[in-house]
Amino acid sequence: MGSIVFMVIAAAAPLTVIAGTIPLGVGAGNGAAFPMTFVLCAVVLLLFAVGFCAMSPHVPDAGAFFTYIRHGLGRPLGLGAAFLALATYTAVQAAVYGYIGAAIDELVASLGGPSVPWWVWTLAVVAIVGVLGYRHIELSSRVLGVLLLAEIAIVLVLDVVVFASGGGPEGLSTALFDPTQVISGEVGIAIMFAIASFIGFEATAVFRDEARDPQRTIPRATYLALVVVGVFYAVSTWAIVSAWGDEAAVTESAANPATFLLTTVTNWLGPAGGLIVTILLVTSLFAAILAFHNVAARYWYALGGHGAFPGAVARTHTRHGSPHIASLAQTILAAVLVVIFALAGLDPVAQVFAWMAGTATLGVLVLMVLTCVAVLAFFARSGVDRRVWHTRIAPALGLVGLLVCLALTINNFATLIGGSTGLALAIGAVLVVVFLAGVVVALVRRPTGPERSGDRVTPGGAPRENA
């Protein structure tokens, strides 16, 4: 269980959330009360996880939301969900690509190097990730482990110092304990960023075939991952807000979201602490990008194997054994998006990161809502599990909570992207069109490969024994 939880937390890139999400949640969301938003979202996701984990043993290829939706609601909606998931992970990757360009430029400038446009650094990262994905080279788990522990350690050191000092000029913030402040401001934006911070927790189900006792290990790992991540985010956000004071935190995060964490750490831990955070932020962002690239490439590969995409993307490299064409397709798509953002003159953090993270969150919320419905439909139809809490009550409560989150997110989406209702509608329309495209493909093209033959497959489309 510990290993599975470790893998999920590592993929979450916690320092990326602390540096990228907290400034936006505090500055554009519900202000100093943003820490409590993590707790509320964690509770909703825990309810969702109950049904998700209960259905996991009954889904052969339980590695992604779309497999649950396909088993619960049928192939057309399942394939629509697969298309939406690909768009969602691409949006997440694009968001982090924007942020890493600004982070690298900040690091190089702090070391006395030249300052260049963010997209120059980002395109260099796109190329590196593309090579790694093509060759299927995995970063050493030990190196990733050290970097993860370092990420968490530097934030925990900041937390301890702030709390031991009794907070900043105003003491420890109490805004998160005031319900009126929790629901104040743009609470929909706050929820959107908080939910986005948990993206990837469902990956625990991928490891169920490797667990000694999956029916016990996977639920426990899922719940523990949600609790650990939720508490870490909430406590760290509370410490950072307290370090500034409520009003000053909101003002600073809104004015300088890209450097909010760096300034906080430098003020409290000195220049050395600031340099460490800057370096670890770059490595955290890179690890997150590589993870999202691999996930997105596997969606290309799976959709090619199921006949939804050209069969070429389902090929593997003869020497490397990698889904090289799928990886190349995702690399090209990412590069095109970066070029578009650069030509449009978008700010890499306040616009690229915020807009794409918001887009991804809309997609993830829709996927989780559909998964909740699929869980309820699956157990109602099959009757394989008679536990009322696990198969009815918890999934229903999770569905209600997710629908509220989705409604708030949609209602506040235009505010997030600068008040442009037209742009908000356009982004929403793109997600709808992508989902409907998957449904149409499922209706007009017969299933091929694993879906038709009944083989058990991983999310990447490879047979279990070859995974």
Outline the secondary-structure elements.
Blueprint: H1 2-12, H2 14-28, H3 34-55, H4 65-73, H5 75-110, H6 118-135, H7 141-164, H8 179-182, H9 187-196, H10 214-244, H11 246-255, H12 260-305, H13 324-343, H14 348-382, H15 388-416, H16 421-444, H17 450-453
Low-confidence stretches: 452-467
Structural class: mainly alpha
The total beta strand count reads 0
Binned strand content: under 5%
Largest sheet: none
Q: How far apart are the termini? A: 20 Å
Total helical segments: 17
What gross morphology would you assign? globular
* Order of helix and strand elements from N to C terminus: HHHHHHHHHHHHHHHHH
Mean pLDDT: 85
Gyration radius, in Å: 21 Å
Please identify the oligomeric state: single chain
Transmembrane segments: 35-56, 77-104, 116-134, 146-167, 187-209, 221-241, 268-292, 325-346, 352-380, 392-410, 422-444
Membrane topology: Multi-pass membrane protein
Protein name: APC family permease
Main location: membrane
Q: What is the gist of this entry?
A:
Keywords: Membrane, Transmembrane, Transmembrane helix. The chain is mainly alpha-helical and 467 residues long.
Commentary on this structure:
- The chain is mostly helical.
- 75% of the residues lie in helices and 0% in strands.
- α2 crosses α10 (214-244), α3 (34-55) crosses α15 (388-416) and α4 (65-73) packs antiparallel against α5 (75-110).
- The chain starts with a helix and ends in a 14-residue tail after the last helix.
- Residues 452-467 have low confidence and may be disordered.
